[in-house]
Structures are given as C-alpha cells and as structure tokens.
Specification:
- By secondary structure, chain A is an alpha/beta fold.
- Chain A is built from 7 helices and 14 strands.
- In chain A, strands 7, 8, 9, 10, 11, 12, 13 and 14 form an 8-stranded parallel β-sheet that branches. A 6-stranded mixed β-sheet of chain A has the order 1-4-5-6-3-2, covered by helices on one side.
- The radius of gyration of chain A is 21 Å and the shape is elongated.
- Chains A and B meet through helix 2 and helix 7 of A and helix 2 and helix 7 of B.
Chain lengths: ~260, ~260
C-alpha cells in the first residue's frame, strides 16, 4: 500500500464525520498533492486522532469525509516537559524541533541568571509553528505545547510535574538514566508483543516529568539551589560536557529509551 | 581554583617537556587569553593526553613547559563509528558537531542510493575543523577522525568494527538499546566508585561498534539488505520518526548511557 499523505486539521473543522476544508487545505490537497475526488489521505487533529479521509467534491469546493480512525501511537508513555533556558542566538529553533521529534509534551522557555532577555511574541509564535511542523513530520499525534516564556524562578515555583530533574554538567550527581529506571512503574514498562502504551491510560494515572536544561555555561549555583528547594533532583547526562542545544536531545533520548525499553 | 584555559597542540610540537608554540598560539595565549609568563593553561594533544603547562618567555618569543599530565577521561569506554549518509543541505555540520560532543571516535560520511553527490574536499576539511572544535569545547581527549566520503556499499564491505548496526525507521526491528545492553561485557560496566574506564584497556581488548544512519527518507530496502549480508543488524531507535540529523544524536546518547550506566 502506498503511503498516504497527511494533513493537519483543526478539530473545529470536523462535524458529523465531514471535514470542512479551508481554501488553503483544498489548494494543498488538490493542487500540491494532486489528489482527486475519491482519493484518500490522513487527517490529524494534533490531539492524538488520525483518520483515513476521502476527498469529495461539492458545488462550493472540496470537502473530506472520514472513513475510519487509524490507531497509530508514536507518543511517549509519559508526559515530559522540557524547561529550557533560552540561548542568545537562534539555537532554540532547533531545540524545539528536535524535542518535538523526540516526543516532548510541552516546552517552557525560561529566562535565567545567564540569559535575561525575554523573547518577543513573534519568536514564541515561530516556535509554535516549528513544534507543529515537527510533530507532523515525525508523525506524532500530539502537537507539543510551547508555553509563554517565564523566569526560571517562577517556572520552578509553579512546577506541577511529579518527577523533577535539573541537569548539571559538573559535580557528582546521579545520572538521569539511574533516576529514570528507578521510578518507571511496572505498568509503564513495555513488554514484547504488548500493545503500545497510551499516555495517561495506565493504572495509576498520569506520570509526568520535568527536565530543566540550562543555558551555555550552565545554571548558576543559586539556580540549582533554588530548584532543589522545589524538589528538583540535580542529575548528570554523562561524562561529557554538552552544549545547551545538545543536552535536551540527550535527555529526551534517555526518557524515550527508559520508558519504552525498561 | 579558577578553570584553566585549554589549547590544542600537535604532538610534534612537544619535545623534552617543552611545547614549541606557533605564532598563532602565542598570539592566542598572550593577546586573546591575556596570559602572562608564569601563567598556567591546559595543553591537549587530541590523542588523550592533557597537560598542565606553564607559559614562559625567551628571546624568540613565548613557549610553554609541561608541569604535569592531568588525567581526565571524558571518553566513551567503547570505540563508536558513525556511518552517516550525507544530507542534501548543510545539516551535516551539526551532525559532526553533536556526534563529536557525544564521544564518537570516527565518522564515515557515505553517499547512498538517495544521496549520490560526493562532497568537496573543502567540506571534509570543514568537518574536520568542526570535530576538533567540538572535541575541545566538550573537553574530550580525542579528536574524532573524519574519514574520506565513500559509497555506502564500500563502507559496509570494508567495515572492521565488531558490532554493526543499521538504523531503520519502520518495521519490527529490535531496539538499539536492547542490542547494546545485550553485549556490554561485565568489564565495561561502570560500577560506583571505580576509576573511569580507559578505552581499549579492558580485558578482552578493544570493543568497537559501528552505527549506520540513513539520509532523509531512510536507507533503501536494497541498502538494508546489502548491509545485513555484511553482518549489520537492523535496529530501531524507538516509536518516533526521526530526521537524519536527529537520529545519530539519539543513537549516540543511547551508546553513552548503555556503556556508562549498565
């Protein structure tokens, strides 16, 4: 079977198993992808639903009817928030893109002692677009949420996640891997042949993690101390000194392996 | 103790515990870093040796004398080669940089069925510079080797590594993590309080791995088949569809965690 083309739709566009396509979507399906009436594509609502849809024609233009829901789960069995200090340059675009690829649920951009400048709302909108694009390209069901930038102090204070880690490059801290495998409950552990885990559907409910990654030069000692006061555990990502753009990818790779393989 | 500045030197510059500094290095130490005669810095030869060196002055200019060797090991306890298909754009710069940060020993850029264009020698020189820079910044002892680009077929045929993996995005393959933890021999396993493992110094000698990562769109079926003929095991990197620039970072993150934490 040839692979079907995918289209992100807004849940509000769907009514009675029909998708009311925007003018841009009609153009994209018909002119760009060259789909004809009767052809199929995959409609994704960015909230975990994928449908096989059929393109149909009516007087006012094209619309789509939903044939059936397709069950594909590429989501992590755990809700991971990345709390990341903003770099000075444009490096955050790539952090957002790669974190979205690796299954992050939400990203909190934070200003820190070493990166004080609050980004413009245009930048935040840009990151939202990048997150949506990356989610679509990596065939995720969920589009990660990009939160409004806040100060690190406020972010750690208001943190609602159950398991909290702050990555520290130097010093004798536990490896993130040891912390993760220490608390993966049995119902989250993947077993060969078992159906993919659905986020939030396990016994015991939602499991949420937040991982704080510092700017170039790392968190200041004061920041680490303040995070510890709010139950963050300082952790290491291994023997090597990583850049601020690489550390989030390493952390999320480990979360993926810990929850899908332990 | 304030952190010492680092300088990469060529082993040929060292004779009788003296470092014969080039004009550029003298300028860098004296004018850029503002070091004076009697000040210390760290000299690294890119082959695993770090020395504490003292800047000294003589009639013809500055030189350095070696005070003592410093033992710092940020190297992976295993020799990992990344065999990576070249992307169409400039994405390979970042792959080289991040792979170097994550401890890769060598990178073989390969042309593949989906990326035929052989890069210019300027590009290869550029990657070598990036690898050296990244090794210095991440405080590694070894500068990864960037090999000359070859065809995928030749690369798999001439492959000398003991453990061989080819990453495949779709299909029911074993997770790279399962393969790695399956063969980490006991002498490679880190134990709390033990000295860091030295590459190639364990009982049983050198342990070498090669991981082949495809271009955007992945390896072709033919390529995977040909790799399997040369004892490559097809592996998965998890449930998500990763870009060609992200997959190497995920693979190397898992190697790091498997060898440092299992």
């Amino acid at each position: 079977m040839a692979q079907l083309q995918r289209l992100a739709v807004n849940p509000a566009q769907i009514c009675d198993r029909k998708i009311d396509l925007t003018r841009e979507q009609q153009h994209y399906l018909n002119r760009v992808l060259r789909l004809q009436a009767g052809d199929r594509f995959i409609a994704m609502d960015g909230r975990g639903h994928w449908w096989s849809a059929v393109l149909e024609v009516r007087e006012t233009g094209l619309f789509a009817s939903i044939a059936e829901e397709i069950a594909v789960n590429r989501e992590l069995p755990v809700e991971v928030t990345l709390m990341a200090a903003l770099p000075k340059g444009n490096g955050f675009d790539e952090v957002v893109r790669q974190a979205a690829e690796l299954g992050v649920a939400s990203i909190v951009p934070v200003t820190s002692d070493r990166t004080l400048l609050k980004p413009s709302s245009q930048k935040v909108d840009r990151w939202k677009r990048i997150a949506a694009e990356a989610a679509e390209q990596s065939e995720r069901q969920f589009v990660p949420t990009i939160l409004e930038p806040v100060s690190f102090d406020l972010a750690v204070k208001d943190c609602g996640q159950k398991y909290r880690f702050i990555c520290v490059a130097r010093g004798p801290n536990r490896h993130l891997w040891d912390c993760l495998v220490g608390f993966v409950p049995p119902q989250f552990r993947a077993t060969t042949g078992a159906p993919p885990l659905q986020r939030g559907e396990q016994d015991g409910g939602e499991l949420s993690i937040v991982i704080a990654i510092g700017p170039e030069g790392g968190w200041t000692e004061g920041e680490v101390k303040r995070a510890i006061e709010f139950d963050f555990e300082p952790v290491s990502l291994g023997s090597r000194i990583l850049r601020a753009v690489t550390a989030p990818i390493v952390a999320l790779s480990l979360v993926g392996a810990a929850f899908e393989k332990c």
